[in-house]
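[Automated response] Your request has been received and processed.

Submitted sequence:
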Amino acid sequence: MKYRRLNQEELTELEPQFIRFLASNTVTAEDWKKLKENDLPKAEELIVLFSDIVFQQTLEKVNFLEHRSPKELQIFSCLPELIKLRGLRIEGESTVDFTRNDPPDQMMQQLQASNAELQIFQAEKTYNKTREMELFEMMEQGCRISQGEMFSVLEQLKPEK
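Generated structure:
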């Protein structure tokens, strides 16, 4: 197993794709039923293989990841050879909560109206493992796939020295 087995909820959501996967491996509905009843390890092996395919295809398409906590926002641009981080941290009291997922322009207006101190930061690094494995590990640690709207907003801000 390269990534992890999809859980039951994820498998249920991907049922049509799983059925196509089974069909492409010449496993009929009747065959699948028999496998689950008589050869659970083989059935599990097919689920694991399907899981790895789903994760690999999904991760190959990821361009941005984000991690949010109430006082900190981290946006990652996931380039082929390099990952870039742009982030904001709120120091002090503020009504801004990055977990609310407000639109970027609304969030920036709230930040400007706030009395809190903003720390802007950025970093970049090459991948230590394969790109997809590092992105997978980041997602398992709480990062979510993003469209990257906030990345371009944060890229225009100057980090603190």
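Summary generated for your ticket: Residues 3 and 53 are 9 Å apart (CA to CA). The chain has a mean pLDDT of 91.
If you did not submit this request, please reply to this message.
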